[in-house]
Amino acid sequence: MSERGGTGRVGRPRSRGAADDGRTPRQEILDAAAALFSESGFAATSTRAIADRVGIRQASLYHHFAGKDEILLELLEASVRPTLDVVDALRSRAPDAAGALHALVVVDVGTLLAGPLGIPALYVAPEVQQPRFEQFRAHRRQLGAVYAELVRDVAPAGHPVDADVLGQVCLHLVEMTASLPSAPQLPEQVAAACLGACGVTGDQLAAAVAGGRAVRDALAAPAAAGRH
Amino acid sequence: MSERGGTGRVGRPRSRGAADDGRTPRQEILDAAAALFSESGFAATSTRAIADRVGIRQASLYHHFAGKDEILLELLEASVRPTLDVVDALRSRAPDAAGALHALVVVDVGTLLAGPLGIPALYVAPEVQQPRFEQFRAHRRQLGAVYAELVRDVAPAGHPVDADVLGQVCLHLVEMTASLPSAPQLPEQVAAACLGACGVTGDQLAAAVAGGRAVRDALAAPAAAGRH
Fold first, then answer.
1. Same domain, yes or no, for A33 and A86?
2. What is the pTM of this model?
């Protein structure tokens, strides 16, 4: 972290006045890169520009990351891994598929809103379709498969939307949350929209909301206990 | 169109064997550009690469378009204008807001599926946020406002998703149709998913489907008559 303090930043006009917010240099680089990728595109962003935005030397950036690809991969992975990590626990504690779907959407939206908001828009960037980002794409497919399995159990018989389509509808609705107008309890609103798309409304939706909350409470409780 | 025939293409290995499919040179350029923008990104695509893909000289491309920006603007506009052109007629003929929303989604998805499938993914590209594409963004906002007005009338009282959020949910679901798995009557499935997100399912959804079909039939009839 030595490159953040002392003389290295003296006289640098772009320096943002130190990481008083408690972010690590690594996280500052990720945040600056995410902002630049969104503003200018991945191809047009140089590691020099990222280092400048953070207020460090380019050489210092390479101390933390091998290059731009590694930064993007970490940003992409951070947008799916936290959700994947809790998927099994979430499904095993849910009273039914509708409750599991509600909880999954809320958790997944929470994962995305906790990181830089422009990341899902990068999923469709040409570079992300290259073999070097296959690890991320495999994780995203894994998450998509969970949505597909859940909606299959959630949608009532005769619902006019195919389960395959519904799984992708839910995944995409979650991923576009950052572009929605700000609203109270946005994750819960997106979850209700997903359940509605699956044909769950009214009293059934209210039951799914309650089920989803119970799952999230159950997930939070042991984790909190484990911190003692 | 002279650049498409004769000696201009002799010896060019990328030449695709002429526009036997009846596309105009202008349309061939648009299609080639759309494919390259999706594969490589807008910034990384040159007018030379577009001309090469079509099998024409770069100078010939400039006979049809002032440059890359004009090509992208036309692609973007073609993805919203045909829907905007029928919005007023569609709303005035719909039995109710649910029928109008169903018809609008089916028409809008039809507009997008009739053009190059990668266009909506370009909406989030950094370049498209520049002032020179404001005309397109204004048209897209106009379309978004129609969705917002319709969902306000469609969602039942007490629905847990705000109308502002629902309007954007519908717009985004329509725009991501090309990334959905192929399915029979995909436009109708997306319309049903949108109505479900708004809290319309079961018998009400069936009524909206019937209403939407009636609107589309009514729109098609005078247009066909006008061709005599």
1. no
2. 0.86
